[in-house]
Design brief:
The protein is of the alpha/beta class. It folds into 2 domains: 15-94, Alpha-Beta Plaits; 140-446, TIM Barrel. The protein is 28% helix and 13% strand. The chain is built from 12 helices and 14 strands. The strands form 4 sheets. The chain has an 8-stranded parallel barrel with strand order 6-7-8-9-10-11-12-13. It has a two-stranded antiparallel sheet with strand order 1-2. The mean pLDDT is 85.
Length: 462
């Protein structure tokens, strides 16, 4: 019987992430009337267990900044001040707001509540320069996560047949359907926390997706989860390829050096096809500028997927081009070469919020690879210098099962927010969102269309 895809969530609190944007202070003029308790629905204010006549100290990390307690306090005994610990989180890209939001999503698995609302910028750099088109008038039955109509979030990984008439080749292509357009990166920063790596791989298996892993990060405890692992190799690592259990591996990705031999790469790919004909083969590319040799690999059916890899802040290897812009250029380049519909395109790097998933798909990818966001879900604070041994979040001592629950909660929350975007656009299948730039507004395009006629240079003589 047909069953809708559903992720089971469960509360997964973590003491190191009990932090709020503000700290609520109770002053001495409080006469313990309890009006703050009655007006707060987030249990920030409670009676003191030792003396029920008194109010306990506010639990600041539960506060959603609705200001209800402050507004209704007859003595004006409550104040909200900035939390210095919160403001020290992350960096210019992984902002404290991004980190705190991921923590809340990972704890409950729900769409986050912002209380007083979003008061930040409506335009910024990167993905903040893209506005999704939410103006579609939709039926109540397609009302996001609460609707009765099913909105599909599954995507296909692998090579598709160029023509439906190629019946003789129906058994040749191998593609894998994953229920969410999100893959995982088990060890994005080259750390050695085996508990987190195991948790990411295990969570990928429960979600139904794949987790990227380098051969040096593989250990025996991961063997039960091999169907959920996608191995990533450099060409120089292929000498030890016999040590990996190839029959159970569904996806292998290669990192190409700046200079490589087309014949050598094709020989390696051909050898892997012989070891496992159903295996998906992917290439990691650092930017949108593909050489003719790479297009030859795509056209020869040697490669099933491309993974456009940026750094953790979404910057590609050449210059300061953001991953969203690089995705758009590569997507259009594949279209011009008439190979876009035959290959899967992934994007990795800079996915710091749920909204970045649909925005990256609009730019042209089929799915995204989550990396740093998974470690943030486990409590990572994105410190300027990572100290895995002296980690303030104690990452190496976390129980894998707790991290699994938090990653699943994060995935569920991001999928629900993707459903809300698709619903507001009137789209019932996330595959239809790929490359739909008409369903979004790009700030630089609007600025050019609005003001170029004013500022463009005029000819001196007509």
């Amino acid at each position: 019987m047909y069953k809708r895809y559903h992720l089971e969530t469960s509360p997964a609190p973590l003491s190191s992430t009990e932090m709020g944007k503000f700290v609520i202070r109770r002053n001495d003029n409080c006469f313990n009337c309890g009006r703050c308790l009655k007006n707060c629905i987030y249990e920030v204010h409670q009676r003191d267990e030792r003396d029920r006549r008194k109010m306990a100290e506010p639990v600041s990390h539960r506060c959603k900044n609705c200001f209800a307690c402050i507004q209704h306090c007859p003595q004006q005994a409550l104040e909200m001040v900035r939390n210095e610990e919160y403001e020290s989180l992350g960096n210019a890209y992984w902002t404290p707001q991004h980190i705190l939001t991921i923590w809340n999503e990972a704890e409950e698995g729900r769409i986050p509540v912002y209380g007083a609302g979003y008061r930040g910028r409506f335009k910024g750099s990167g993905f903040d320069a893209i506005w999704t088109d939410m103006s579609e008038i939709v039926r109540p039955t397609r009302d996001g996560i609460h609707g009765r109509e099913y909105i599909a979030t599954a995507v296909d990984l692998g090579r598709k047949l160029p023509l439906l008439s190629d019946f003789e080749r129906l058994d040749d292509p191998h593609f894998l359907e994953i229920p969410v357009p999100m893959l995982f990166e088990a060890n994005p920063e080259g750390r050695t926390a085996k508990n987190i790596i195991r948790a990411v791989v295990q969570a990928a298996g429960q979600v139904g997706t794949l987790a990227y892993l380098g051969p040096d990060d593989y250990f025996d405890e991961l063997e039960p989860y091999l169907p959920s692992i996608a191995f990533r190799f450099g060409l120089d690592q292929m000498a030890g390829m016999d040590s990996v259990p190839w029959p159970d591996v569904g996806l292998i990705e290669f990192i190409l050096p700046e200079e490589f031999s087309f014949l050598e790469v094709e020989r390696i790919l051909f050898r892997l096809r012989g070891l496992n004909p159903r295996m998906l083969l992917s290439l990691r590319v650092p930017n949108h500028d593909l050489s003719d040799s790479l297009f030859d690999l795509i056209k020869s059916s040697s490669v099933d997927m491309l993974n456009l890899r940026a750094d953790s802040r979404g910057r590609c290897s050449e210059g300061e081009l953001f991953i969203g812009d690089s995705i758009r250029k590569l997507h259009l380049s594949l279209i011009k070469r008439h190979v876009r519909d035959t290959i899967t395109l992934l994007g990795q790097g800079g996915m710091a919020a749920a909204e970045h998933v649909p925005k990256a798909i609009i730019c042209g990818v089929d799915a995204v690879v989550l990396d740093v966001s998974l470690w943030v879900a486990a409590g990572c604070r994105v410190c300027a210098t990572c100290r895995i041994d002296g980690c303030p979040a104690r990452m190496t001592s976390l129980e894998p099962d707790l991290v699994v629950r938090r990653i699943i909660n994060l995935t569920c929350s991001w999928r629900d927010q993707l459903l809300e975007v698709l619903s507001a656009m009137g789209i019932r299948d996330v595959r239809r969102l790929r490359g739909e730039v008409g369903r979004a507004m790009f700030y630089e395009d609007i600025e050019r269309e609005s003001f170029n006629f004013i500022f463009e240079p005029k000819p001196l003589f007509r």
